[in-house]
Amino acid sequence: MDRNKGAGFVTAMAGGGTSNGNVRVRKVVVVGGGIIGASSAYFLAKRGVEVEVLESNGVACAASGKAGGFLALDWNDEGGNPVGPLSRASFTLHKELAQEFGPSAIGYRLISAVAANIPENARHEASKASYLGSVSKETVIGTTETCAQVHPEKLTKALIRGSSAKVTIAKVIGINRSDSKIASLRIEGGATRPIAHDEAVVFALGPWSNLVSKELGLPTFYGQKALSMVVPTDPPLSPYAAFTNWRGKNPEIYPRADEAYVCGFGESLRMVTEKPDEVVPLESGERQLRAFTKEILGSMGDGVPVRACHLPLTEDGIPVIGSLESNGAENGVLAAGHSCWGILNGPATGKAVSELICDGEISLIPKWAVSSISPARFPSRTRSR
Ligand SMILES: Cc1cc2nc3c(=O)[nH]c(=O)nc-3n(C[C@H](O)[C@H](O)[C@H](O)COP(=O)(O)OP(=O)(O)OC[C@H]3O[C@@H](n4cnc5c(N)ncnc54)[C@H](O)[C@@H]3O)c2cc1C
């Protein structure tokens, strides 16, 4: 049995049947307004589905507004990684989105990438050709054929606008189920959002997915805090991303048209307990990020705030995308745990979610990859109904 097919998810709903006997989902409630929720909203709207987004703080307020936005066609290809086909599909979708929204509106451009070893006490001499100057040994690891970048916050907001979704600022604190379906969402403050027979729910909560994982018998989701700065640059830096080795750490730099995004100094993996607007940098990480930025970009980063956010992670390092039918919520879909590739894989995830809801199965990527990313891959755990 192909447990991810989700045919039951679509057919289980009453009313408004389509010509093939399946039931059309009229409206979807997306919980979480990051890149995954926004992409789901966008591709569902393209299929004619009305979307409402419930977001606790603000669209792109977490990792999706603070990420680097580096995209690579084939960096997830190795070793039969099921994320590979998703990334390839998403890389192409990013190109199409850039045409649709206009490249500069979402900060899309092709770039190359280098691995750079920056020795201790090296003197930095930037040149027009290389902002890393003479301090590093560089190896080209990506070209403009296979690498690109976007501005994650601009893209996430453009996708929400493009979906015409109604965005409601509301913190979902739990779900009520009945007959193996989500009957309503509990909202902080005492309200509930009933889920009608022709509605479905997409959970796109990133590292906050434990909101539903325990109740639905899914493994724990984790977050790994990482820090970033956005430094204005005039003139612009040469357009290549740098993956560096600096004092035993691996900070990264992504130049953009008029600024440079610098990130790194992650903490260890843990369950996320802070609210999205309470994620702050640790002092030691902030000190290191500032020292690195000073060494590479000189005084340009002085006074620029350091931000923190969580990479969303799963137990096995693979995102969870698919129907929650076998978890006792047949009108629910989960899309979370995209680690350091959520911006790259957002559009393909959103398209896959729209296919699952509108067609009953994901056809964007091969079947073996669909089942490898499905929630049904986890052995069933105790779950309350
Ligand atoms: C420093 C850093 C750099 C990165 N760089 C890149 C990169 O270059 N390329 C790349 O592809 N990826 C990158 N990533 C990864 C990428 O940012 C994430 O994988 C992606 O943003 C995850 O998106 P998401 O929508 O799943 O989660 P999030 O962006 O975390 O969104 C989840 C949303 O859910 C909301 N929410 C939480 N709880 C509730 C609730 N109870 N009710 C309602 N709403 C709720 C939150 O407010 C938030 O808006 C980077 C990540 C980090 C940390």
UniProtKB/TrEMBL annotation:
SUPFAM superfamilies: FAD/NAD(P)-binding domain. Residues 27-356 form the FAD dependent oxidoreductase domain. GO terms for cellular component: cytoplasm. It comes from the Eukaryota. This is FAD dependent oxidoreductase domain-containing protein.
